[in-house]
Structure formats: C-alpha cells, structure tokens
Amino acid sequence: MTTSSGFIRPLDGLRIVEVSSFVASPLCGLTLAQLGAEVIRVDPVGGAADVHRWPLTDGRGEAPAGTSIYWTGLNKGKRSVTADLRSEEGRQLVQRLVADSGPGGGILVTNSGGRDWMSHARLSADRSDVITLELVGSSDGTPAVDYTVNAGLGFPALTGPDDHAGPVNHVLPAWDVICGVYAALAVTAAVRHRERTGQGSAIRLPLEDCALSIASTLGYLTEPQVNASSRTRSGNDVYGTYGTDFTTADGARFMIVALTTRHFRDLVDLTGTGDAVSALETALAADFTAESDRYTHRRVLSALFAHWFETHTAEQAEQALAESSVLAQRYRTFEDVVSGGVLEANPLFAELDQPGIGRFLAAAAPATFGGHYLAVPPAEDLGASTGRI
After folding, report:
1. Quick one: 50 and 82 in the same domain?
2. Catalytic: which of 43, 50, 146, 176?
3. I need a surface site. Which of 79, 252, 265, 300 has the fewest CB within 10 A?
C-alpha cells in the first residue's frame, strides 16, 4: 500500500487474514494496515458480535441512524469478506485465503481460536511457513475480556478517590489496546523470523498475560513481593512524585505535574508561596528537592498552592502556566477537544469520508515515517470485497 505521494509503507507486500471481533484483534489488524499490510477481515454472514456495537450514529447528521462508529473505526483500511464459517465451504475459503496469498501472505490473526479448521497445525499442512497469531482471554485459555482481566489484577483497587471504599473501573480498555498493539509487533517479528529462516510461527497471546506483564514491569506486582505490601489509592495525585489537580476561580480544573526540582521551583514561584514552602520544609524537616518528600507532604503543599488557583481565572492560569516549566493541562471533555480545534490543528488528522458515518476528521497512525503520516482508507461495508476475493 502506497500513500498518495508515492511513499511505500513499511509493511507493503504483506497480506493478513483477520478473523476477529471486539478490540484487541481488530486493533492488531488496523495497526498492520496502517503500516501498509493488506488486511482482509473475514466475518460470518451478517457480521460478528461487534458489528453493531455502540456508539452508533444517531441519525441527526448526514448518516442514517444505526451505523457502528466503533466498528468502522477499528476496521479502516481493511477489505471485508463474509462467509458462512459454520460450513465447510466457508472454512475452506479462510484456509485458501491464508495459504494462497503469495510470499507476503500466509498470516492469520484471530481471537476466535480453539477451532481445528484454522489451527496452526491445520494451516501449516497447506503452507509450511504459515504464521498464526491467536489472541485468547485468560492465561489458561478460558474466556476473559479487558474488564474482567482488570478486575482480577488489582488496578480497580487503586483507581478513584482515595476515600472511596469499593473498586473503580477505568473507561479505557487499556489491556485490549496494549494487547492489540503487541499482537501487531509479534506478527512483524514473526515475519522477520520467517524472512531469515523460512520458518512459520504459532503465536499465542493471552490478554491476561499482557496485563500481567505490564503490571510486573511497572512494579505493581513486584512491590507486594519485596515489600510485603502494595500501594494504596492516591486519587488524582500522581504516585511517587508531585502532581494533582486544582480548580480556578471560574470553576475550571487543571492537572499540574512537577516531576523535577525545576518544575516544583517554578510552581512555587508561580503561586507566590516561596516563603511558606520554605517554612514548611523547615518545620517538617523535609527536603523538597526530593520527589519522595514532595509526594509524602503533597496534601499540605497542595493546600498552599490551591489559593493561587482559587483566585485566578482559567485564562489567567493558562497564561501563567504556559510561561513556566510546570507540566499542566486543563481538563477537557471529548466535546471540548473537538470544538476547540485540536483536531484541525494537528496534521495527524485528515478528513475521512466513511460510508454510513459521513465526513469527519480521523487520525492516522501516530508515528511518522520519513515525515509521512500513515492514514488508511475508510472501512468497507460489511462483505464488500467478498465477490472480489
């Protein structure tokens, strides 16, 4: 797949067959498509379980009501094929698509594993260098989704206000996203391995293991092992350093982070609290050049800084913060981001004419290659390429 300027994308020449639904597996395919691979998504006739997943168009714009904004977003740049996957004919279609696809093909991505007819063993009988990536839920292969994995991992116990008694779920399916992007990385690694050795790969990627891996890497699972305890909720305070939110005189809220000594010094100067902070440092025998002390005494520090925010408007706060090194951002809604011109100002976004949705600004892949953003065409209508493939 080349761009309109003739730039050849990094994965040009690869063909991926995707039998999937929901987030992680389609996101893997989308990521590979953005990088230049030809991705063919195969759905059952009528679509998989996610074909009408919310959010849907409400019919107030140029598009009719009922099109899944979710589904079209995750399936941009792919070719769509439908088949009766319960029939022998439909299963043979998938097998042929995987096997008879040239040197860059022979790759299957699916979260519908456990089916002998598209297992690695079955597909490798037709093509010895086949690459299969099977996304599963739990580490033991039993069903799981992002929200159940997260519930069993510990993050909901740390999410939410520090005086809240119960678990708080996050709204971002973080483990699905991480798993989907890691799946794309695993496929490209397997392709590299095949180019060097001529050998295929059978990749198994549990969603739960992606979550456990990240939790281990970031210390969440190491801490209770070596310290015999784990961290507690800290609300909107950033764990282990100084960062929290403040409200201005006109009700706007800002997130402030002072990761370094310079950040903290500038925050003190900006809020005019130098004398009070110095006196506090002496009284507490603290050293506020150390982020551990800034975190330990964050509440009393925040009480000092809060007065400045409470006596300044959002506009005044934004201007003062922009002139300092303090890391800051005003809290916004998704509607605020869209109406505030953020998308128009960022070359990551370009207009997309999506059938069933209409025209809107859509993001390309976030990395540029040689200065090129890697956008993809709109999602095809379900089954649009069935007759051509």
Report:
1. yes
2. 176
3. 300
Whether residue 92 is contained in a domain is answered as yes
The domain in which residue 307 lies consists of 253-330
Q: Would you say residue 1 has pLDDT above 70?
A: no
Same domain for 257 and 141: no
Contact 206, 141 (CB under 8 A): yes
Domain match, 155 and 209 both: yes
Q: Does residue 247 sit within a domain? A: no
* Distance from C-alpha of 338 to C-alpha of 350, rounded to nearest angstrom: 13
**76 and 184 inside one domain:** yes
231 near 286, Cβ under 8 Å? no
**pLDDT tens for each residue of 177-202:** 999 999 999 999 999 999 999 999 99
pLDDT at 331 over 70: yes
Q: Which two tokens stand for residue 382?
A: 């379900």
DSSP H/E element including 284:
helix 274-284
- 321 and 349, same domain (yes or no): no
Nearest alpha-carbon partner for 47 in 83, 78, 73, 98 = 83
pLDDT of residue 241: 96
For the question of residue 176 being annotated catalytic, the response is yes
Does the pTM surpass 0.90? The reply is yes
3-state helix, strand, coil in the chain (%, to 5): 40, 20, 45
Give percent above pLDDT 90 in the chain. 93
Say how many domains are in the chain.
Answer: 2
Mean pLDDT confidence for 130-159: 97
